[in-house]
Design brief:
Blueprint lengths: L1 H19 L19 H5 L13 H4 L11 E9 L5 E10 L5 E10 L3 E2 L12 E2 L2 E12 L4 E14 L2 E14 L8 E10 L3 E2 L1 E2 L3 E5 L7 E5 L4 E2 L4 E13 L2 E12 L5 E10 L3 E10 L11 E10 L3 E9 L7 E9 L1
Antiparallel strand pairs: 1-2, 1-21, 2-3, 3-6, 4-5, 6-7, 7-8, 8-9, 8-11, 9-15, 10-14, 12-13, 15-16, 16-17, 17-18, 18-19, 19-20, 20-21
């Protein structure tokens, strides 16, 4: 069994080395809605809950941890007021299926206020508006393959619509979680490859335009603009987590993540959670990039609280406050149900 454990981590670190070698295209990624986090608990802990998220909450952070839930069914819905008058809605469900493992389904929607349509001849607006729509739908699978190691996979379908053009594609997440590392209770290690997939490209009727060739032999004709392809914002997380009981009914968890992005500088994320009697929770997080100034990080700090109340089923309510550097502060609410 130990040989299987070593093989999995050697394989993932080999993939990471190949991935790290192609991190020089900052600012050219598309489908960045994939990077918007979901789940108030994880956001409150600085986006660092790669090792200690469970059930439906784990689908975004690390699909391998879906199998760690104590509930047969986990349901999660969340709402976030994002920057520039945008909002993010998210829903997920994780279901234990016995020996097959755990299945999960999720959907994320990024919505914006209507945007005034302009043209070269009417820069102040035509009187018409359009509303971009970005949707990510995923199906996930996770399984505990040893008493310590779990693996998980998510396949996401991405759909982007901007007025009369659209693009679609697929992105894949693969994660592994190792519990009680080196036989130390509460010490976990996780690695996750996120948003891995092929390029995307916009197409649609809005790309047709009237133009005249330079030699003017054919007069004005319809031509189709060939939109450029764009790659997905792939990232690789290496995470540690440690949880311990401070005193009776008092639990503390520390989490840390190093994230290597192929279109953005490396990130360092730290989080802490204090739980009293598995009922009340207080959380804080810190997020920093390796190359940018601290002032260039939009959401550097995060604070949150949570309630987990059992009434025959587990009812969860989590709230996170994100003070922003340049935009209005962001509020994040998540409601969960465990059966």
């Amino acid at each position: 069994m130990k040989k299987i454990n070593y093989f999995i981590f050697i394989l993932l670190f080999f993939v990471a080395q190949v991935f790290f070698a192609q991190t020089d295209r900052i600012g050219t990624a598309g489908a960045t809605e994939l990077l918007i986090p979901v789940g108030a608990r994880g956001v409150a802990m600085g986006n660092s809950t790669v090792t200690n998220s469970y059930g439906a909450d784990a689908i975004y952070w690390n699909p391998a941890n879906m199998s760690a839930s104590k509930n047969r069914v986990d349901i999660l819905v969340s709402h976030m007021t994002y920057i520039a008058d945008m909002s993010v809605e998210y829903g997920a469900i994780a279901v234990q299926t016995g020996s097959f493992g755990t299945l999960g389904f999720s959907i994320k929607s990024l919505s914006m206020n209507p945007i005034l349509k302009t043209t070269v001849h009417t820069p102040d607006g035509t009187g018409q508006t359009f509303k971009p729509q970005h949707i990510v739908m995923g199906i996930s699978w996770a399984k505990l393959i040893t008493d310590k190691i779990s693996i998980g996979l998510t396949a996401n379908y991405i759909s982007e619509n901007i007025d009369l053009v659209s693009a679609s594609g697929f992105a894949f997440d693969f994660g592994v979680n190792y519990s009680n590392l080196a036989d130390i209770k509460g010490l976990d290690l996780a690695v996750v490859l996120k948003n891995f997939g092929g390029d995307m490209k916009f197409d649609g009727s809005a790309l047709w335009t009237k133009a005249t060739q330079i030699d003017q032999r054919r007069g004005e004709q319809f031509y189709k603009i060939d939109a450029a392809v764009f790659s997905l914002p792939t990232s690789f997380d290496i995470a540690f987590g440690y949880s311990f009981e401070l005193a009776k009914s008092n639990m503390i968890q520390f989490t840390g993540v190093y994230t290597n992005n192929n279109f953005y500088p490396e990130q360092y994320k730290l989080g802490v959670e204090y739980g009293y009697n598995n009922l009340f929770f207080f959380r804080a997080g810190y997020n920093q990039t390796a190359e940018f100034d601290a002032s260039d990080v939009v959401f550097k700090y995060s604070l949150g609280v949570g309630i987990n109340y059992n009434v025959g089923v587990d009812l969860k309510f989590d709230y996170t406050f994100l003070p922003a550097e340049y935009f209005n502060s962001t509020h994040f609410i998540t409601v969960g149900l465990g059966i």
